[in-house]
Design a protein that fits this description.
It is a single chain. The protein is of the alpha+beta class. The protein contains seven helices and five strands. A five-stranded mixed beta sheet has the order 1-2-5-3-4. The radius of gyration is 23 Å and the shape is globular.
Amino acid sequence: MQATFSSAAARRTTVAAFISVAVLAAGCSSMSERERGTAQGAGAGAVAGAILGTVTGGSAGRGAVIGGAVGAVAGNLWSKRMEDKRAALARASEGTGVEVARTEDNRLKLNVPSDVSFDTGRADIKPQMRPVLDEIGRNLDPAVRLTIVGHTDSTGSDAINDPLSRERAVAVRDYLASRGVSTSRVVVAGRGSHEPIASNDSESGRAANRRVEIFLAEQG
C-alpha cells in the first residue's frame, strides 16, 4: 500500500514539476514569438505526455519527454520567416498607429486605421500607408498567402458601405500587385460596418471601425 502511494505521489510530483517548468518557459519576456511558441508547445506537450503516461500505467517522465518533443514541433508553426516579416513590418509601421500582431492561428495580422489607410468615403490609398504595403511585398515568401478585409463605420447605408469596404481591400491588393505580389495569392473581402471593434456612437469609435485588416499566412 505504501509503495503504491509513493509511486502515485512521485508521478504527481513529476507532473507538477513539468507544469512549473512549462509556465516559466512560456512566460519568459525575453523570448521571441517563435521561441515562445516552441516553449508553450513543449510545455503543454510535456504535461499532457506526463499525465497520459501516468494514466496508462507508464512512466510519467518518459511520457513528458515524448509529449514535449511533439508539442515543440506543434508550437513552432510560427516560422522564422514569419517572425522576421513581423519584425520588419513593426519597424516599417512604427509611429503610424498600424497594429502588427501574431494571431492565435499563427497568422500575421496588420490592423490599419483610417488615418493611415483611407479618407472618409474614399478608396484611395493614403501616402502614409505605402511604406507599410511596400514592406509587405518586399521579399515575400512564395508560401505566404494574403487576406485583405475592408471595414467601414456605420455612417451611411449598407448599400454604400459594403461595396466601399471591398473597394478598399481591392485597392490594397492592386497596390501590392504593382509591387510584384501575384493577385492569385490574395483574397479580398468587404465587411462594411458589420464587424465593428468600437462603438459607432463617437467619432473616435467610428474612426477605429474605418480600417483595413491584412492577414499573412504560410501555406503548408
